[in-house]
Amino acid sequence: MHRFEWLILANEWLCEVGGSNVVSGFPSLSRSELNGIPDSGPWEPVVQQIVEYQHLENDWDGFGAEAPSRELLESAIGLAYCYLEQGVDPPQRVAPGVCGSVIFEWQDPDGTYAEVEIDRPLHAEIMVIEPGQPAKHWTIPTE
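-> C-alpha coordinates emitted (143 positions)
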Protein backbone atom coordinates (compact mmCIF):
# COMPACT_ATOMS: atom_id res chain seq x y z
CA MET A 1 0.00 0.00 0.00
CA HIS A 2 1.32 3.44 -0.94
CA ARG A 3 2.08 5.56 2.08
CA PHE A 4 -0.77 7.98 1.23
CA GLU A 5 -3.50 5.37 0.77
CA TRP A 6 -4.67 5.48 4.38
CA LEU A 7 -8.01 3.87 4.99
CA ILE A 8 -9.93 4.73 8.13
CA LEU A 9 -13.01 2.81 9.17
CA ALA A 10 -15.87 4.77 10.70
CA ASN A 11 -15.90 2.72 13.93
CA GLU A 12 -12.11 3.16 14.40
CA TRP A 13 -12.38 6.92 14.00
CA LEU A 14 -15.41 7.16 16.27
CA CYS A 15 -13.60 5.11 18.91
CA GLU A 16 -10.62 7.50 18.83
CA VAL A 17 -12.86 10.56 19.06
CA GLY A 18 -14.42 9.14 22.21
CA GLY A 19 -11.25 7.69 23.70
CA SER A 20 -8.53 10.22 22.94
CA ASN A 21 -10.54 13.38 22.93
CA VAL A 22 -8.92 16.35 24.56
CA VAL A 23 -11.06 19.24 23.36
CA SER A 24 -14.37 18.41 25.04
CA GLY A 25 -12.73 17.43 28.31
CA PHE A 26 -10.87 20.70 28.68
CA PRO A 27 -12.69 23.92 27.79
CA SER A 28 -9.51 25.94 27.44
CA LEU A 29 -6.16 24.15 27.33
CA SER A 30 -2.85 25.92 27.12
CA ARG A 31 0.34 24.22 25.95
CA SER A 32 1.48 23.89 29.56
CA GLU A 33 -1.76 22.07 30.47
CA LEU A 34 -1.41 19.36 27.80
CA ASN A 35 0.42 16.90 30.05
CA GLY A 36 -2.78 14.97 30.80
CA ILE A 37 -3.52 14.21 27.14
CA PRO A 38 -3.09 10.60 26.00
CA ASP A 39 0.36 10.09 24.47
CA SER A 40 0.31 11.19 20.85
CA GLY A 41 4.00 10.50 20.24
CA PRO A 42 5.28 12.21 17.09
CA TRP A 43 1.78 13.60 16.47
CA GLU A 44 1.90 15.65 19.72
CA PRO A 45 2.67 19.01 18.02
CA VAL A 46 -0.26 18.40 15.63
CA VAL A 47 -2.64 17.58 18.49
CA GLN A 48 -1.45 20.66 20.40
CA GLN A 49 -2.08 22.89 17.39
CA ILE A 50 -5.57 21.47 16.90
CA VAL A 51 -6.37 22.06 20.58
CA GLU A 52 -5.28 25.68 20.17
CA TYR A 53 -7.78 26.15 17.31
CA GLN A 54 -10.57 26.08 19.91
CA HIS A 55 -9.67 29.72 20.57
CA LEU A 56 -10.31 30.80 16.99
CA GLU A 57 -13.38 32.92 16.38
CA ASN A 58 -15.26 33.51 13.16
CA ASP A 59 -13.35 35.92 10.91
CA TRP A 60 -10.06 34.73 12.44
CA ASP A 61 -8.23 35.65 9.24
CA GLY A 62 -9.87 39.06 8.76
CA PHE A 63 -11.54 37.82 5.54
CA GLY A 64 -14.58 36.03 7.00
CA ALA A 65 -13.09 32.60 7.74
CA GLU A 66 -15.22 30.30 9.90
CA ALA A 67 -13.84 28.92 13.14
CA PRO A 68 -13.84 25.11 13.39
CA SER A 69 -16.52 23.69 15.67
CA ARG A 70 -15.66 21.75 18.80
CA GLU A 71 -17.01 18.57 17.18
CA LEU A 72 -14.79 19.06 14.15
CA LEU A 73 -11.74 19.65 16.34
CA GLU A 74 -12.55 16.46 18.26
CA SER A 75 -12.74 14.60 14.94
CA ALA A 76 -9.40 16.03 13.80
CA ILE A 77 -7.74 14.89 17.02
CA GLY A 78 -9.37 11.47 16.73
CA LEU A 79 -8.07 11.15 13.17
CA ALA A 80 -4.57 12.11 14.34
CA TYR A 81 -4.71 9.22 16.83
CA CYS A 82 -5.96 6.85 14.11
CA TYR A 83 -3.01 7.80 11.91
CA LEU A 84 -0.62 7.47 14.86
CA GLU A 85 -1.86 3.90 15.41
CA GLN A 86 -1.37 3.14 11.70
CA GLY A 87 2.22 4.39 11.82
CA VAL A 88 1.60 7.37 9.55
CA ASP A 89 4.18 10.13 9.93
CA PRO A 90 2.74 13.41 11.18
CA PRO A 91 2.10 16.08 8.57
CA GLN A 92 4.60 18.86 7.98
CA ARG A 93 1.77 21.35 8.36
CA VAL A 94 -1.60 21.52 10.08
CA ALA A 95 -3.83 24.54 9.57
CA PRO A 96 -7.39 25.72 10.05
CA GLY A 97 -9.33 25.97 6.79
CA VAL A 98 -11.37 29.04 5.93
CA CYS A 99 -14.65 27.05 5.93
CA GLY A 100 -14.25 25.77 9.49
CA SER A 101 -12.13 22.75 8.58
CA VAL A 102 -8.75 21.42 9.74
CA ILE A 103 -6.14 20.52 7.13
CA PHE A 104 -3.17 18.14 7.40
CA GLU A 105 -0.50 18.56 4.69
CA TRP A 106 2.49 16.42 3.68
CA GLN A 107 5.12 17.32 1.07
CA ASP A 108 7.69 14.70 0.05
CA PRO A 109 11.12 15.57 -1.40
CA ASP A 110 10.06 13.90 -4.68
CA GLY A 111 7.29 16.52 -5.06
CA THR A 112 4.42 14.34 -3.84
CA TYR A 113 1.81 16.40 -2.01
CA ALA A 114 -0.95 14.97 0.20
CA GLU A 115 -3.75 16.79 1.98
CA VAL A 116 -6.40 15.57 4.40
CA GLU A 117 -9.14 18.10 5.08
CA ILE A 118 -11.47 17.30 7.95
CA ASP A 119 -14.46 19.23 6.67
CA ARG A 120 -17.14 18.03 9.09
CA PRO A 121 -17.23 15.74 12.11
CA LEU A 122 -16.08 12.22 11.20
CA HIS A 123 -15.56 13.09 7.52
CA ALA A 124 -12.48 14.08 5.54
CA GLU A 125 -11.53 14.68 1.92
CA ILE A 126 -8.13 13.37 0.82
CA MET A 127 -6.11 14.55 -2.16
CA VAL A 128 -2.75 13.16 -3.28
CA ILE A 129 -0.74 14.62 -6.14
CA GLU A 130 2.30 12.66 -7.29
CA PRO A 131 4.65 14.00 -9.98
CA GLY A 132 3.54 12.92 -13.43
CA GLN A 133 0.27 11.39 -12.14
CA PRO A 134 -3.29 12.69 -12.09
CA ALA A 135 -4.51 13.85 -8.70
CA LYS A 136 -6.24 11.20 -6.59
CA HIS A 137 -9.24 12.05 -4.41
CA TRP A 138 -11.23 10.02 -1.91
CA THR A 139 -13.07 10.45 1.36
CA ILE A 140 -12.84 8.83 4.74
CA PRO A 141 -14.16 7.06 6.65
CA THR A 142 -14.34 4.00 4.44
CA GLU A 143 -17.03 1.43 5.03
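The radius of gyration is 15 Å.
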